[in-house]
Amino acid sequence: MTRKTLLAPQVKRLLSGVSDQGNQHLTEVETDLVQTTFLLSEAIEKLGASFVAIHEAVCKQQETVEMLMKSGVTPENAEKLEALRGEIGKHVNAAVTGLQFQDMTSQLIGRTVRRVTGLREVLNVLGS
């Protein structure tokens, strides 16, 4: 037998092993992507809650403003308005942070899925 004939089965086994190992890693990456998508869904749910909280705080603030317009400004009413303004600011910041996280994570997941698809194609060629 020639050296080439002896090496061919070894190279074939090596490439097949690389393909199998790569596919196992890709399966793990896909699992990570599913978990990341789950975390993203939770972040979006929190974002929705933040917007609802903002709406509620704005409604309370509007009620207080209407009371002020009817009864005049008292120190207690002014304090209520100031507290509501701070609460609204807190909720708006939380919502904006959620939007930024969701956007960055979506982009990252999209790029990773494209990489996984390309790598799987290369590994399938190696395996055959």
- Give me the secondary-structure category: mainly alpha
Output the radius of gyration.
Answer: 29 Å
How much strand content do the residues show? under 5%
The ordered string of helix (H) and strand (E) elements is HH
End-to-end Cα distance, whole Å, is 24 Å
Number of helices: 2
How many β-strand stretches?
A: 0
Main beta sheet: none
| Principal-axes shape call | rod-shaped
- Mean pLDDT equals 82
Poorly predicted residue ranges: none
Helix content: over 70%
For the structure shown, list the relevant keywords:
128 residues; mainly alpha; rod-shaped
In short:
Helix content is 95%, strand content 0%. It has 128 residues and is mainly α.
Structure description:
This protein is an all-alpha fold and 128 residues long. The protein is built from 2 helices and no strands. The chain is rod-shaped and about 105 Å long. The mean pLDDT is 82.
Layout of SSEs?
Blueprint: H1 3-71, H2 75-127
Helix pairs in contact: 1-2
